[in-house]
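Lab notebook, bench 4. Still working through the backlog of constructs that have no structural model yet. Next entry is a single chain of 179 residues. Request: give me the structure tokens for it.
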Amino acid sequence: LTLAFFTTVAFSSVIVPGLQFWLITRPFATTERIPIMSMQALSAGGVLLNYTPFKAGLIGRVTYLKLFHGVGLRAALSTNIMISLLFVLTSMLALVVTAWRGGFDVAWWLLMLIGIALLILISAPLLRYTLPGSIQTDPLLRGTTGARVRYLAPCYIVQMIALFATSLRWWLIFLILDK
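Model written out:
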């Protein structure tokens, strides 16, 4: 049980956020592409540094991305806002579907998939208008809706994985505390 807990903590605290930031930040890199392993290392370091009183992990991530990948401060702020919005939207969807269904069954999963698809289709056109024009980004994000759908789909899916991993982590904590 303890091994499962620590594996889940590593997965939900380091690996999934690293994947989220990599997916969302990729189009904003202007000098060189961001390798996924580089973002994972940055995420792991950020988790440790965020235990300091002044959130050094966030400051370190923003500084690193600016220096090595050309991701500006506005783009970094935009990526953090996007991750927060993805979290709020997927959490609200999960809460509504769970409150309506009352449990996890085939219908619950089907409703979640349909809900995520709708969130992607609604978010994709809005993304074009919410990105400030002063931010340098991949031209595809400002181009077709299909390109934005391809950008947002993995972001929403990884956010759902993050919600499940965090739920599993808390479930394991309560199991351990019960013993």
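Notes after review: The helical segments are 2-25, 36-49, 56-69, 73-101, 106-130, 139-142, 145-178. The mean pLDDT is 86. Flag for follow-up if needed.
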